[in-house]
Each structure stands twice: as structure tokens, then as C-alpha cells.
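Exercise 7.
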Amino acid sequence: MAFTLLIIVVGFMYKYFPTIEVKTGVVQASSNIAHSQKLGVFKAKYKPNIKILNLENHQFEIIEAWDEYVWSYKDMRGNVDTQKESQFCINFQQEWLDSDSIKFSSPDAKNIGFRNHKILLSNSDKDTIRLHVTQGKNLIQVLFVKQ
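Solution. The predicted structure, written as C-alpha cells, is:
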């Protein structure tokens, strides 16, 4: 009974007191360009010079690439806080399964991160962004050009 009452009170407070915010501060990345645009953090779309990366035993297709403001959720309603820095996002069709043998780097980014089917590059607000993909002796340079 007490748990049910607690749920009702929390629901009431959420609906009628929207100023109650839960600031997470956890940096997020949009799932795709449409999501980035919906959140209002989209900056620019990029086109890769190579869409399919052929490595030793793997093939990866680049679906889309974009630049967006660094952002985080600021409350339970999905409102976002944006920062002045940007992050460059690259979506792949599939996740790289053998990640120990595939190396990603970029001379145009301060940091590089990975999340599911996505690569994130920090502070890479440029017209052309280079991504180096290495597996064994194979090196592929992908150029992403702002559209």
C-alpha cells in the first residue's frame, strides 16, 4: 500500500511540478541525424568518400555521419542541455565484432569513442574530417566532407 501511494505522489509531482529536474550531466550521442535534428543539436551532415570499408575478414558500411553539439539530458522530460563543443558521429550498419584487431584513429579529433554501431570524435568541427581504420597491414583513410 505504501509503495502504491509513493508511486501516485511521484506521478503527481512529475505532472504538476515540472520545475523538478534531474540533471544527469552524462554526455549523450544522437542515434541518427533525424534524432539529432529533433533534439536541436544538429550542426552539419558529412559525406564519406568511401561508403564500404573492406578489411581482411570484415566489411563495414557507413550509413551516415554528422556533427552535433555535445549534449546531455537535463530532466526526466527529455529536455537537453547543450555545450559549445561539438562531437562528430559516424553510424555503421553493423558493429565490429573483432574490435581488438581493428583500430580507429583520427588526426582531426582530440578523443575517439565507440558505442554500439557508432564512432564518436570529439572537437572535430572542420569542413573535412579524416578517419583512419587499420586492421593488420590494411590502412584505409576515410574523408568526411561537410555537405
